[in-house]
Amino acid sequence: MFRKKGLKKILLIAIGVILISSLFIVYDKRSSSLASTTKKVVDLAERTVEIPETVNRIVCSGTGALRLICYMNEEDKVVGVEQAEKKWGPTGRPYMLANPELANLPPIGSGGPGAIGSGPDAELVVKLHPDVIFVTYMEKGKADEYQKKVRIPVIVLSYGKLATFKSETIFNSLRVIGEVLNNEERAKEMVAFIQKLNADLENRTKDILKDKKATVYVGGLGYKGMHGVQSTSCKYPPFIAVSANNVADKLGKDGQLFIDKEQLIKWNPDYIFIDEYGYQLVMNDLKLPSIKLLKAVKSSDLYGILPYNFYTTNICTAFADAYYIGKVLYPNRFKDIDPQRKADEIYTFLVGKPVYKEMQRDFGGFKKIEYAENK
Question: Nearest Cα to 72, choosing from 195, 186, 182?
């Protein structure tokens, strides 16, 4: 009897050891499985960030972050947007025209130019349980600090200093998004598409000698609001894309700036392109006696182009502008191009829908402007 009880006890102990060992084996396998569900990504701030292998929920904060996500066809993963995106409505931003439902998502903070580099509202973001937060133009230290605060991986993106068409920074941002969201193929398609447009524009105009080119000027550029003819740009990307002779480049500066009206009179460009965001202010400027004497005004060589700098560069609109400008300046080189159709081709690839008509409705679209006093 004793032997039976002892044997039974030994058997129970042995079974217990086997079960405990099995649990440790299962736990160990589970731990290995959990460890393999993360990966590391290097963002545009040169930070190495550990993220989930599969990302299903994201938020985007900062100038142009949401746009890049839409370019990557990943808008379905967005679970919250900045209040600025909701407040502004879709006007001027093709990615929102193509995806108006994004404005119905919960807010993640104020956003807008005044919030650049600060990150979204931590409390609002945490409530939405995103797997990853995409931000633009955030310094490395601030990104580390914000990530520690919310305990959610933060991926820094960027458009580069001037957000030009050929910006390797933009290409790298798209590649990082592709890596984070396991959509490397779309990133490759995006980079190839942009490079193809660049090459096409360059090949059409690169052999035109500078002394054979008309002089050009762009006015009415938006910069923290609407401005008139004095708001212009050096190294204006659409002009660079078609090798146009921009009179403002003589100043040797970069990006948007304001000039004196006397400087414009001195330059007296052959063509003036008007950013339609500042259209009415420019038209008021054209009433000034000195401005009316410009040869571009007298000959009605005034042309409306779509505004593309809204919460940084709307790349699709900037390319559409470049094709229209090329058509105006070099009609023989762009005789196969219908600017409106080309615009919709670009919009469709980048944001998923042909939204030129909506942009035309809101701003006026590509057009020759017949100055009233010349009629």
Answer: 186
Residues 255, 121 share a domain: no
In the numeric block, which tokens belong to residue 356? 């030129």
| pLDDT at site 28 | 40
The residue segments making up the domain with residue 94 are: 38-178
In Å, how far from its chain's centre is CA 76? 17
Residues β-bridged to residue 367 = 304
Q: How far is 354 from 366, CA to CA, in rounded Å?
A: 15
CB 340 within 8 A of CB 353: no
Structure token digits, residue 138:
């955030």
Q: What are 114-168's pLDDT values in tens digits?
A: 666 678 999 999 999 999 999 998 999 999 999 999 999 999 999 987 667 778 9
In a domain, 25, yes or no: no
* Cα 232 to Cα 214, 223, 307, 318, distances in angstroms: 18, 10, 12, 15
- 137: which residues sit within 8 A by CB, 6+ positions away? 62, 63, 116, 117, 156, 158
Same domain as 235, residue 152: no
* DSSP type of residue 119: -
What single DSSP character describes residue 107?
B
- CATH (domain of 116): 3.40.50.1980
DSSP class of 304? E
> pTM for the full model?
0.88
320 and 245 within one domain: yes
In a domain? residue 137? yes
Q: How many CB atoms lie within 10 A of CB 138?
A: 29
Residue 26 has pLDDT above 50, yes or no: no
> CB under 8 Å to 268, separation ≥6 — which residues?
215, 294, 295, 296
117/49 same-domain check: yes
Residue 77 lies in a domain: yes
Per-residue model confidence as pLDDT tens digits over 78-105: 999 999 999 999 999 999 999 999 999 9
